[in-house]
Amino acid sequence: MPKVLVPLAEGFEEMEAVIVVDVLRRADIAVVTASLTDNRAVTGSHGISVVADTTLDAALEERFDAVALPGGLPGAIHLRDDARVAKLTQDVAEQGGWAAAICAAPMALAAFGLLQGKTFTSHPSVRDRLAEAGGEYVERRVAADGRLITSRSPGTAFEFALALVAHLADEATARRLAESMLVASPAV
Q1: Could you tell me the residue range of the domain that residue 130 belongs to?
Q2: In-domain check, residue 86
Q3: Catalytic site residue 57?
Q4: Could you give the CA distance from residue 43 to residue 50 in angstroms, rounded to a whole number?
């Protein structure tokens, strides 16, 4: 069973984190949420507090098949600026795993050098910050290129999560979940 890390930084976008975690767990994919600090309670950009499964320092002892970065500001900036998140995400990608980010979080992937030569998307408000990423920006709701998956906003969180399911499990599972939740199937 694949294992996904969802790091949570203060100011994360709540929908982009919780929807992704929920959909992945419905697909029987192991998900670990990890707070960047020693405090497992993390407050999102809209004032909703979530208790992470563990801390990032503890999660560093585990092996992950994918890292999924939620957006939100300033959460995405905290992810981008955290050397542990950078190293773990780069290591997962180098070992053939998946790097995924939604909304403003592709800024972190750009800083980690993971958008180079890739097709990707993000929230329109951070597009200009990705001009130097070395890839091709597209205005798709979800963009997948190799083992990179990116998406645009809270409004695309279900599609983003289902694309992760399609790639980490299989397309049939993603379709089944989409139908059961009355969500459009991913276009990836």
Answers
A1: 3-181
A2: yes
A3: no
A4: 6
pLDDT tens by residue, 116-156: 999 999 999 999 999 888 999 999 999 999 999 999 999 99
For residue 186, being part of any structural domain is answered with: no
Mean pLDDT of the chain: 97
Q: Which of 24, 79, 85, 103 is catalytic?
A: 103
In a domain, 176, yes or no: yes
This prediction has a pTM of 0.96
SS3 sequence of 140-151 = CCEEEECCEEEE
Tell me the residue type at 176. Answer: R
Q: 102 is written with which tokens?
A: 């939604």
State the chain's maximal CA–CA distance in angstroms: 40
Q: What is the DSSP letter of 124?
A: G
Exposure class string for 81-116: b at 16+ Cβ within 10 A, else e: ebeebbebbbebbeeebbbbbbbbbbbbbbbbebbe
Identify whether the C-beta of residue 116 lies closer than 8 Å to the C-beta of residue 93. no
Give the pair of three-digit tokens for residue 93. 């990608």
* CATH code assigned at 65: 3.40.50.880
Q: What is the number of structural domains in the chain? A: 1
Closest-CA residue to 186 (of 176, 168, 174): 174
Instruction: Return the half-sphere exposure (C-beta side, CA atoms, 13 A cut-off) of residue 136.
Output: 8
